[in-house]
Amino acid sequence: MIKLVDVEKSFDSQVVLNKLNLEIPAGKITAIIGPSGEGKSVLLKHMIGLMKPDSGTVFVEGEDITVMRRHVLNRVREKFGMLFQNAALFDSMTVFENVAFPLEEKTSLSRLEIRDKVHEALEHVGLKGVDRKYPDELSGGMKKRVGLARALLLNPRIILFDEPTTGLDPIICRAIHQLIKDTHTRFGFTAVIVSHEIPEIFDISDNVAMLYRGRIIEMGTPEAIQRSEQPVVKQFISGSLEGPIQFV
Ligand SMILES: Nc1ncnc2c1ncn2[C@@H]1O[C@H](COP(=O)(O)OP(=O)(O)OP(=O)(O)O)[C@@H](O)[C@H]1O
């Protein structure tokens, strides 16, 4: 589905991705974990072609997106939905307008059809009657739900989630995870979730990949990752201060 082969990315002298290899299976939920600043967001941006590797290849459904012209890449990007860290809502638009935006941009649906689709999407994420509110008037969890409704709207084959629950309380965090799981079961997209919610993210993931020093050092089921004997993985999952991971 998504395959990265020997991907290298540096910013000036800082190597962020170092011959990274990763295969994201189709139709599953894959979590990417790893210490802060290791390059998880950079990795997501390579998957959707927002960043180009210095070398190496990124395949999306068998197509090498690193050599594509912009208009071809834009076509591939239509397979993706993305939920950004801050939900990335437009503050000057109502909830309705925010969710309707991709439909207005990318389809020729009538106003009535758009209205129905937006209402349906908001209902899927458990938000009714907030159409006319502005993002400022919503809680953090509600904003994430609006972002998720918008990401789901074009029925994408792949959804990338960049820290979908950061800054939310544990109950809302669980509710958002459950919502991701439920919508995944219902729509069957391929999901990649960058998350710091350990161990909670394991409950909804089929696979977990750990990024460290520019590479995926281990990938497996949540159970396998939790049983890992690899010292970096062990330390990270337990949150221990003792071990190979150094703090600045
Ligand atoms: N456009 C850019 N230009 C220069 N450096 C960048 C750019 N984007 C990311 N970086 C650097 O790449 C490194 C990885 O950043 P990234 O945001 O991917 O980390 P992360 O693992 O997602 O962190 P966190 O868990 O804290 O969100 C950081 O050192 C960051 O400063």
UniProtKB/TrEMBL annotation:
Residues of the ABC transporter domain: 2-238
Transport listed as a keyword: yes
Keywords assigned: ATP-binding, Nucleotide-binding, Transport
Entries under PROSITE patterns matching the protein: ABC_TRANSPORTER_1, ABC_TRANSPORTER_2
SMART domains, sorted: AAA
Pfam families: ABC_tran (PF00005)
Cross-referenced CDD domains: ABC_Org_Solvent_Resistant
GO MF, one annotated term: ATP binding
PANTHER family in alphabetical order: INTERMEMBRANE PHOSPHOLIPID TRANSPORT SYSTEM ATP-BINDING PROTEIN MLAF, PROTEIN TRIGALACTOSYLDIACYLGLYCEROL 3, CHLOROPLASTIC
Name recorded for this polypeptide: ABC transporter ATP-binding protein
Organism: Geotalea uraniireducens
